[in-house]
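To: structure desk
From: M.T.
Subject: fold request, one chain
Message: Could you run this one when you get a chance? Sequence is below, nothing fancy, just the single chain.
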Amino acid sequence: MPPKTKTDIDVELRSRRWNPNDAKAVRRAIHATLDEYMPKTDHRINVSVSLNNDQNIKELNYQWRDKDAATNVLSFPSGELENINTWPAKQVLPLGDIILAHETCARESKDFGIPFHNHIMFLAVHGTLHLLGQDHKTDDDHQKMIKAELKILSQLKLANPYPLMQQ
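Reply: Done. Structure tokens follow.
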């Protein structure tokens, strides 16, 4: 079934560890999330994805979050979603950027016993929800985000990863 939301997902493989099948899995997860949670619009939406490595994500994590460590996923919303109703009709609306670090994703996948593609799809869903304005700063927000993630994972026929990640 084709995606409901008209979306351009630009995926850049910034590490040799990533492959086209990884990019395909990430795109699928982003499309599913946008189809469920993107506000209705006639605009084309753009999401940029960087399939990267630990070193680059560590630098970004330090620069933007003052955390001197690699992480699995970073999301950088463009802030333009709030302008969706006034955005010029023929211009693509940039939703933001998602960056995944291969080494951290692979290590977590192994540690949690989750297939790699399932894990990166979960992280792509998580990152996309951040682009759409969801967060997990409070317990209530965290629970809402988990509920949204699990709804998308179910649609993608992927298991709930939380019990495995909390062991």
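Reply (cont.): Residues 20-37 form the longest helix (18 residues). Let me know if you need anything else for the meeting.
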